[in-house]
């Protein structure tokens, strides 16, 4: 599906909803009636269609601590819906770049940025094997869900750290987290959408990424 067609599909089938406990942010999010898996035929599953707990925790942390991004260039790595990019822009980041390899995620992020009246730069690419970002704040939500991807992300973030980046990670505690590089800074009780409305909320943690400890 072309980006313009994907954007129309998202606008028509994913209703605008407030982000849980962050009602100042609204996103196009999937509901059971959305038929969102029709977009999965284009490549990646539609991860961008829901709020994942690690990204939610980091968005909450940014809203509670705007000084962590205020006046700084911010990169949302694996942006998905654009939640972290939007949270950073609303918190006063000087420049925000939202990056994702899935063109449908970029279509969703563009719609969501307009919905929240923030200015973002979007890039549809996989940067992990390329040059490191320099002198930026990098936000990483829920990217350590598979061992092979986690290794690539960790290797890339190590290079970014050496290039004077500040890195924040939000995650629900997945097995592939590089725990020897992570210092917890806050914990948030987040509803995990994948387990149904009756499931208990799950603590998600925000970490500062640093050199091997």
Automatic annotation (TrEMBL):
<keyword id="KW-0489">Methyltransferase</keyword>
<dbReference type="GO" id="GO:0016279">
    <property type="term" value="F:protein-lysine N-methyltransferase activity"/>
</dbReference>
<dbReference type="GO" id="GO:0032259">
    <property type="term" value="P:methylation"/>
</dbReference>
<protein>
    <submittedName>
        <fullName>Predicted nicotinamide N-methyase</fullName>
    </submittedName>
</protein>
<dbReference type="InterPro" id="IPR029063">
    <property type="entry name" value="SAM-dependent_MTases_sf"/>
</dbReference>
<keyword id="KW-0808">Transferase</keyword>
<dbReference type="InterPro" id="IPR050078">
    <property type="entry name" value="Ribosomal_L11_MeTrfase_PrmA"/>
</dbReference>
<dbReference type="Pfam" id="PF06325">
    <property type="entry name" value="PrmA"/>
</dbReference>
């Amino acid at each position: 599906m072309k980006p313009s067609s994907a954007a129309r599909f998202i606008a028509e089938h994913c209703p605008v909803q407030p982000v849980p406990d962050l009602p100042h942010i609204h996103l196009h999010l999937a509901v059971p009636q959305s038929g969102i898996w029709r977009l999965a035929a284009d490549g990646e599953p539609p991860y961008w269609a829901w709020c994942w707990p690690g990204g939610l925790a980091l968005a909450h942390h940014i809203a509670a601590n705007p000084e962590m991004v205020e006046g700084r260039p911010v990169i949302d790595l694996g942006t998905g819906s654009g939640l972290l990019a939007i949270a950073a822009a609303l918190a006063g980041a000087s420049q925000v770049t939202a990056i994702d390899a899935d063109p449908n995620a970029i279509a969703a992020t563009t719609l969501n940025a307009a919905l929240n009246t923030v200015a973002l730069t979007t890039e549809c690419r996989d940067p992990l094997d390329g040059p490191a970002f320099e002198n930026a704040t990098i936000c990483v939500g829920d990217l350590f869900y598979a061992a092979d991807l986690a290794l690539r992300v960790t290797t890339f973030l190590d290079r970014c750290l050496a290039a004077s980046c500040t890195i924040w990670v939000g995650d629900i505690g997945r097995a592939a987290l590089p725990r020897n590089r992570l210092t917890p800074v806050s914990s948030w009780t987040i509803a995990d959408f994948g387990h149904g409305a009756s499931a208990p909320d799950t603590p998600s943690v925000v970490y500062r990424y640093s050199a091997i400890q």
